[in-house]
Amino acid sequence: MADDQEKDLQKFLKNVDEITTLIQEMNSDDPVVQQKAVYQTEKRLRLMEDAQEEDGCRTTLNKTVISPPQAAGKAVQNADEISPEAFLASLEKDAKERAKRRRENKVLADALKEKGNKAFATGDYETAIANYSEGLDKMKDMKVLYTNRAQAYIKLGEYQKALVDCDWALKCDEKCTKAYFHMGRAHLALKNYSVSRQCYQKISEVNPKLQAQVKEYMHQVEVQEKADLQEKEAHAVLNSGKSTAVTTKNLLETLSKPDQTPLFYAGGMEILTDVMKDCTEQTLFRMHNGFSIISDNEVLRRCLSSAEKDVIEETVCVTVLKLWQAVCRENEENQRLLVLHPDMARLLPSLLACKAMAIRQQSLTLLLQLTQTGHGRSLIFSHLDMTRLLEALLSFLDFSDKKASTAIGLLTDLALEERFQVWFRANLPGVLPALTGVLKRDPVVTNSSALCKCIAIMGSLSAEAAARRHMSACEEFGDACLGLLAKCEDDMDLCREVTYTLLGLMMNLCLQVPFASEVWAMELSRRCLTLLDSQDGGILTIRMV
């Protein structure tokens, strides 16, 4: 008995010591120490609750997360004077009050977060920061407010403040991938390349499913680090007095003169294009604001944006496009700066669809150059108007020569990318009219190879259920399929490959159950029955399948 009493006493004293330590830690000035103390207190509450359930009785304890413990210290002035049970009962009451306040503050913090997000979306980053900060006054441990504010700080170029917020977000949740992402961006902007890589690598360690995104982030670091080195080398070459380097700088200064004639600028750009022989000159073009000098020049802007271009405007446009090709050839940083220019999202698709053949050809050449790397394709998906780009590429079906095959071949390569497929599914209603227009073309006069590739793209995309459902539900699209099949039947020798590809698309559409139109299904069946009389083994094989 004496031994049991001694054990109980020792257990009681141990509880008192632990509780006293928790109180001291909850009153600490270090928020991290406070949070750990809160966690340990809640853990004790849960353990005590489990023990009480095993004894056949239960005292209800509120397990809501406890906020910083100033009031808890006031509730219990001296832990040595009360029993652990009394202390926990007092703590439970305090926890209920804190939980109520926390729920109220959470509602306010969420509302402020939404206000901040709306301000951020409009580009009002200062207001966004103010809203996020006010939200953090309500909820100190709300990690999303820290990461959102860090993102806004990055937009304003306040990278050190962004890093501080990322640190706080990681204190709230050490596995917060958004915090590591924004931390990586901030270090990248500060040219701390190795640290930026470490941040991005941490993302893949926390969540291996994000490996693909991490790979892209790592490539961005590589591109910027390489660009930084290029600029240091180019600066040294310029200081050495190399003729092409000095000429590049002088030509850009000449082209920066405002209000000159279009042909003045065209002549200067032709000379500048000839100078762009290697990476040094390309880098100097970037360093001396070459992209802004060209894109922000009012005279050149009018030439590039005019709907009906005269001979001089056409000359200027062709010259600009050739210069961009020379500047961006095998230079990923220059490609990034070109595509990121605010006007480029609509300008390149517009030039690609221009009536002037020379402009279309040079635009296509530039686009082909950009799509040679994954980095370039990523820039296109992220920053160009993809709907207008698709329409512009499809318009090359107007030509029966190599240009059509080249343009549609480029579109085929883009369509293989997962990002294209995601975009396609999200924008299918707006894209369907252009695809329907392809099916309405005359297969006899249209480039057969290019037309087959277009239909094959549709067939591949229709294999996905959501896309197939949209296509099947569009009556005009279905009728266009039947109409093209009828045209092919009229001249099967010329249209054999188109027929093969079209039947593949229509087979996919038939997978949609129930049929959007029984009339369409019956007409398709009737036409397929007539194809059974064909002597073409390939068509018969498709029908048997």
Automatic annotation (TrEMBL):
Q: Which UniProt keywords apply?
A: Cilium biogenesis/degradation, Cytoplasm, Phosphoprotein, Repeat, TPR repeat
UniProt xrefs under Pfam families: TPR_1 (PF00515), TPR_8 (PF13181)
Which SMART domains does this chain map to?
TPR
Q: Where are the TPR repeats?
A: 177-210
> Where in the cell?
Cytoplasm
Entry's PANTHER family? TETRATRICOPEPTIDE REPEAT PROTEIN 12 (PTHR46540)
What role is this protein assigned? Answer: Cytoplasmic protein that plays a role in the proper assembly of dynein arm complexes in motile cilia in both respiratory cells and sperm flagella.
Q: What is the protein name stated in its UniProt record?
A: Tetratricopeptide repeat protein 12
